[in-house]
Amino acid sequence: MARDYDDDRVVVIEKDSNNGVGLLLLGLALGAGAALLFAPASGRETRERISREARRAARRAKDVTDEFGDKLAGQVERARSGVDEGLGRARHAVNSRVDAVNDAVSASRDAAREARADIERAVANSKRAYADGRRAYAERASRTGMSGEPGPMADDRAPRDGAEGHADGSAHDA
After folding, report:
1. Each residue of 54-103: pLDDT tens digit?
2. How far is the C-alpha of 62 from the C-alpha of 128, rounded, in Å?
């Protein structure tokens, strides 16, 4: 069954843009002019009234436009200050985050320098310990009459297959 969209109700919403006041003043001016034209008075008096009412309508229109201009200027100023305030907050937030990132980068660099120094100390200590170990081995080998070439120490040798116990001399319990 096809739906007929022509039967749907359509609602149109219009936003009032304050044209009612201007139209009201225009209607008053036209009504006053028409009343003066049809009023029983001499031509000269009628022209003077029309002239007087036209000046009065012009003053009213000027007052309305001045008031509208002032309101519009106030709204523009409020919008501008709101945008400026929002930009200020955004700049502050960005600057604080940039500062935080810069602080984190600086702290990371400091930590990396410290870690590098620690690693360099540990490597130097390891090299020194290795050199001391080689020197001690060479001294022991020279006292016992062994060759000066370093070889595996007794503690470094693994037990042979079928040998009883472990390298540390303890028995294996199952």
Report:
1. 888 889 888 888 888 899 899 999 999 999 999 999 999 999 999 999 99
2. 97
How many whole angstroms separate alpha carbon 84 and alpha carbon 91? Answer: 10
**What pTM was estimated for this model as a whole?**
0.38
Comparing CA positions, the residue from 64, 74, 78, 79 lying closest to residue 18 is 64
**DSSP structure class, residue 168:** T
Going by C-beta distance under 8 Å and a sequence separation of 6 or more, which residues neighbour residue 62?
A: none
- Mean per-residue pLDDT, 23-32: 76
- What does the block give as tokens for 80? 């501008």
Return d(Cα 96, Cα 110) in angstroms, integer: 21
Give the separation between CA 54 and CA 32, rounded to whole angstroms. Answer: 9
CA atoms within a 13 Å half-sphere pointing along the CA-CB vector of 59: 5
Task: Give dist(CA 81, CA 168) in Å, integer.
Answer: 83
- Closest among 123, 154, 121 to 137, alpha carbons compared: 154
